[in-house]
Amino acid sequence: MSVSDAESQLGQSLAINELKLLRSSIDNIDASLVYMLAERFKCTQKVGVLKATNDLPPADPAREKVQIERLRQLAIDANLDPDFAETFLNFIVKEVIRHHEAIAAEAGR
Question: Sorted alphabetically, which keywords does the UniProt record give (predicted)?
Answer without folding.
Answer: Isomerase
